[in-house]
Amino acid sequence: MSSRRRLSRDERLEIIRESGKGASAKALASKFGVTERTIFYTLRTEKERRRENSTRTRQVNVSLTDEELRDFDALLGKHGITNRAEGLRRLIQCANGVFQPDEHMVSELNAFRAALNRVGNNVTQIAKRMNEANKKGMRPSFGEGSLAQMRSLAGFVLDFADQVHSLAERRRSHLTLTVNAALKDLADGEK
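The line above is the sequence of Mobilisation protein (MobC); the predicted structure tokens follow.
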């Protein structure tokens, strides 16, 4: 089977029809004397062609600051894209997976919330003891144990903030990679 064989327009249309009827890529590749990759490429190209030729009836309007627009243009320019509408359209098309809930992030944030609740309970208990002592006119007992507990709580809060920051940065990096991949695909398609 030759991987360099070019398909005629009629063959491509037949591949699309047969695939729509449920024919496998392997069977189609064998029938037309091409690789499965060629079949997948043919089907993907047709899907993109249909999407590009479909009637676009909806508009998205967005107001931006001068700085936001400059940043957007710079991002598009970085990927060799000169058409804002196409860049925005590609970002919207790729956003399907981007704006889905991140199960891992939700799980980690729930664990953070539970830990923060424990810290809050500890702080409440310390404040309660200090307030009770104050009402009795006594100096609150604040020994080494209480001091160690306060240091531990302060350390936990700082670690907690670092963990949340790290989680947010990982998510931002993932989104950046996803957006860059979508823009790269668009830029590659324009060449």
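Note on the example: Residues 9-53 form one domain. The chain has seven helices and no strands.
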